[in-house]
Each structure stands twice: as C-alpha cells, then as structure tokens.
C-alpha cells in the first residue's frame, strides 16, 4: 500500500503530465496562429479584461514586469494589441486587442473550450469539486511556506 508521501508524488507526476499534454495540445492548435503559448494565454486574458494595465498581467501570470513588457511590445509590434493612454492617469496605458488580436483570441478560446469540454465530459461535478478543493489546499500550503 503506497504511503501518503508516495501518493502525493504520483499526484505531482500526474499534474506534470496534465500540463505537458495540455501544452502539447495548445502548441498544436496555435501553431497556425503564429503566437507562443504565453502570448495565446495573454491574448485570451486581455479578451476577458479589455483595458487592463500591464501590472495586472504581471500579477495574474506571476511574471516579472520586464518579461511582461517584452511580451506586450511583441504583441503590439505584431498588431495584436494596442496601448492607449488612460485618461484618468497619463502614467498608465490601457491594453486592448486589435481586430486581428480579437480573432486570434477567439480562435484560442474556441480551442480551449473544446479541450476543457473533452476533460469535463469524463468527470462528474463531485470529482471537479474535490479536485478544486485539493489543489487550492496545495497552493495555500505552498503560499504559507514562502
């Protein structure tokens, strides 16, 4: 019978496998869109939060501001986003998707919905609730250690 520690090691392995397979799916689906996985996630987030500022991206993705700055510059260069000066604070630039960015973000959302539906179809609501609670507990234990 596996110990608690051995079971959790298996959980870690399965989480890594889930992330690898999800990343592989995303890479296959977005390769024709000519964006990186991080750019795809960023475009999807901006689509849901139009007018956000760069710091909000840093906070949400837990990335250094310098990393987000480079990514935002590349997205703007590629015509996927535009930055507009905030009328309430000239220091802030609000980030919006361009038409091209909206189209790509919608494609990404459609692909992710298909992937998520494929997973959800195999789980009942109780499984999802248990998984959610367990993962939240793991994250909280990690946050309390740092």
Automatic annotation (TrEMBL):
Residues 11-140 form the HTH marR-type domain. It comes from the Bacteria. The keyword Transcription applies. Gene3D superfamilies: Winged helix-like DNA-binding domain superfamily/Winged helix DNA-binding domain (1.10.10.10). GO terms for molecular function: DNA binding; DNA-binding transcription factor activity. It holds the Pfam family MarR. SUPFAM superfamilies: Winged helix' DNA-binding domain. Keywords: Coiled coil, DNA-binding, Transcription, Transcription regulation. Residues 98-125 form a coiled coil. The keyword Kinase does not apply. This is Transcriptional regulator. The lineage of its organism: Bacteria, Bacillati, Bacillota, Bacilli, Lactobacillales. The gene is marR.
